[in-house]
Amino acid sequence: MARLDVIDPKTASGEAKELLDAVQSGLGMVPNFIRVLANSPAALSAFLGLHGIAGAGTLDPKTRERIALAVAEQNACQYCVSAHTAIGRKAGLDVEEILANRQGRSSDSKAAAAITFAGLLVENMGEVSTAEFETVRAAGHDDAEIIEIIAHVAMNIFTNLIGKATQVEIDFPEVALNQAA
User: What is the pLDDT at residue 181?
Assistant: First the structure.
């Protein structure tokens, strides 16, 4: 059970209702994570803004989901692992790739470099070496993509924190974690 109210879009009011209605319109559902975040319309609005910007970038949807899966597993957020397993499948990732991503790997070499870099960002709180920076660049990621990898890591750390701290009920097919943080 969530530690905070799970806002019902049907009874929400004001800015929270507008934001929840927009999510419903875009996704066809309002995930529990979003409903908990709606306790603060300002926080929900900020998240949706970052999510929108991150989704409009040059990283392909599969790589964005690969990063989300790797970060969620690294941070032991079962809600996010479950959510991004479902979203990753919709984006075209197969079961083997999803499992590899959760272990910080990928069958795609360019995506593998992004996932490795993302893992280093999480592990070292952003303190990456010049060599690690050059490795992701050598794999084919330009400056825009590197910034987007960093943005996706930051956004996913935020969602992992919300998911774990609030103990929001998983409303996607539940996926067990590989490890505990």
Answer: 41
Comparing CA positions, the residue from 95, 94, 114 lying closest to residue 104 is 114
Under 8 Å CB-to-CB from 106, ≥6 apart: which residues? 66, 97, 100, 112, 115
pLDDT (mean) for 48-68? 94
Cα–Cα dist 104/141, whole Å: 17
Q: Are 114 and 104 in contact (CB under 8 A)?
A: no
Contact 74, 181 (CB under 8 A): yes
* CA-only gyration radius of the chain, Å: 16
Q: Please report which helix (H) or strand (E) contains residue 64, including its range.
A: helix 61-74
The pLDDT of residue 122 is: 98
CATH assignment of 61-166? 1.20.1290.10
Q: Domain limits of the chain?
A: 15-55, 61-166
H or E element in which residue 104 lies: none
Count helices and strands in the chain by DSSP H and E runs: 9, 0
Distance CA 69, CA 89 (A): 11
User: Residues for the chain: how many in total?
Assistant: 181
Q: What are phi and psi of 108, to 5 degrees?
A: -95, 120
